Amino acid sequence: MCGRYSFALSEGQVKEHFNNVEIAHLWRTSYNIAPTQHAFVITNDQPQKLQYLAWGLVPYWSNDGKNKGKLINARMEGIESRPSFRMPIREKRCLVLADSYYEWKQYGTQKRPYRIMLNNQPLMVMAGIWDAWNQGGYLVKTFSIITAPSSPDVAHIHSRMPVILDTKEKQAAWLGNINLSEIKRILGSLEANRLKSYPVSAKINSTSYDEPENHVEVPEIPDLFS
DNA sequence: CCAGACGTTGTT
DNA sequence: GTCTGG
DNA sequence: CCAGACGTTGTT
DNA sequence: GTCTGG
Question: A163-200 b/e with 16+ CB inside 10 Å = b?
Answer without folding.
Answer: bbbbeeebbebbbeeeeeeebeebbeebeeebbebebb
